[in-house]
Write a structure and sequence with these properties.
17 strands, six-stranded antiparallel beta sheet, single chain, globular, 11 helices, alpha+beta
Length: about 400
């Protein structure tokens, strides 16, 4: 093996052998002894996607870095290494920590000198760190605590534990999602699952508030997952989740859900619309509401049948899933966000990657309502469709 390969193998071994809560310590040791790093700072994106927060034990003086307007934030947003070269001759490198499109945070290093070789190698090490962080989170709360600007409500704690990653990417597609208010969300939820041939995306909205809404959503999402993992098509998943919710609540509570199954080889999409979330299609710079047959939310009546509709995606299409806490929010003059402002926000975000679009749309929503705190959960999921590339 080359020296570079030996260093990466040794670094991976050191990270894997460290206790889950001691990954930052093991990382610092590797970077200091093998790469001559003078300082090492690991920051993770907070739940609201507004700031990168230092992971303890952080070096003295390490401060949170805003996602907008900071060097670490620039690396996080571009998903490319960002290098500063101060006048003292040292190099300050900021490296995205990302796993399969899920943007976790940024690793910042102060190095005595910069070479293109070492930067590429360190970027690989940052990716390796991301994989180890995902595994380590199963056994320690250190990283979950580090991502909090403030305490989560119990309902929000339940919802974030139920969610998948906030972004992911494959050759055929890229996904991004965000919930607000991040620290007090209760009933909205998103979920996705990818297999060899299909991508399934779910957007749900449980009625009610607080713990009751979170419990309702948790039951519904797990019922959908149970049916999905049994290999049942989306209309059957909806029917079985409907039965599970009705059996427990007897029609007194229901769950709105939009279920989508995309065939990766063709872009053929099957959709079940059972409630309030809406689906928007941006194609050739034109935004349109996908016309779907509204069906009953899950849990309203016993043994409801659901029917899937079809739509075929084209390469370059962008889909947006928005909850009623987005499209239905009224401005002080009474105009809902979904009438005109949502289209403007989507247009303004047209050049952003899928992972950044939900936050951009939600920032537009905050300006539209002109109030600091929302009255309802707000959820946006963005799916960019690239299509299956022909085999070379």
């Amino acid at each position: 093996m080359t020296d570079r390969e030996n260093r990466l193998v040794a670094a991976g071994r050191a990270l894997r052998s460290a206790a889950p809560h001691q990954l930052p310590d093991a990382l610092c040791q590797v970077l200091r002894t093998r790469y001559g790093a003078e300082s090492v700072e690991l920051r993770l994106a907070d739940y609201g996607l507004t700031v990168l927060l230092p992971v303890p034990p952080a070096p003295s003086g390490t401060k949170p870095a805003p996602l907008q307007g900071s060097a670490p934030g620039r690396a996080f947003g571009s998903q490319q290494p960002y290098v500063e070269e101060p006048a003292d001759g040292r190099v300050r490198a900021h490296l995205p920590v990302t796993v399969r499109g899920d943007r976790l945070g940024v690793l910042s290093l102060t190095l005595p000198a910069r070479t293109r070789e070492s930067l590429t190698e360190l970027a690989e090490l940052a990716e390796l760190l991301g994989h180890e962080l995902v595994v380590a989170e199963r056994d320690t709360d250190l990283y979950a605590r580090a991502r909090r600007r403030e305490r989560l409500t119990l309902a929000a704690e339940m919802q974030w534990q139920l969610l998948p990653a906030r972004s992911c990417a494959r050759e055929e597609y890229a996904l991004g999602a965000q919930l607000e208010p991040a620290y007090a969300v209760f009933g909205d939820n998103f979920d996705w699952e990818a297999s060899d041939g299909h991508l399934m995306v779910y957007v749900t909205n449980g009625m009610g508030e607080g713990i009751e809404a979170s419990l309702l959503t948790s039951l519904g999402v797990n019922a959908l997952r149970n049916a999905r993992r049994a290999g049942i098509p989306i209309e059957g998943q909806a029917a079985l989740a409907d039965q599970a919710l009705y059996a427990h609540y007897r029609g007194e509570a229901h769950l709105s859900v939009l279920l989508v199954d995309v065939e990766l080889s063709t872009g053929r999409m099957r959709i079940v619309d059972a409630g309030s979330p809406r689906l928007l299609l941006l194609r050739d710079r034109v935004l349109s509401l996908v016309d779907l047959d509204a069906q009953l939310p899950l849990g309203m009546f016993e043994e409801t049948d659901y029917v899937a509709q079809e739509l075929t995606l084209l390469p370059g299409d962008r889909l947006l899933f928005v909850s009623d806490g987005v499209h239905g929010v009224a401005a002080p003059d009474g105009e809902s966000y979904g009438e005109h402002a949502l289209a403007r926000a989507v247009g303004n975000a047209s050049l952003l990657p899928a992972a950044d679009v939900p936050a951009a749309v939600l920032r537009g929503l905050a300006g539209h309502r002109e109030r600091p705190e929302p009255d309802d959960d707000a959820l946006v999921v963005c799916l960019d469709w690239f299509g299956k590339r022909p085999a070379s």
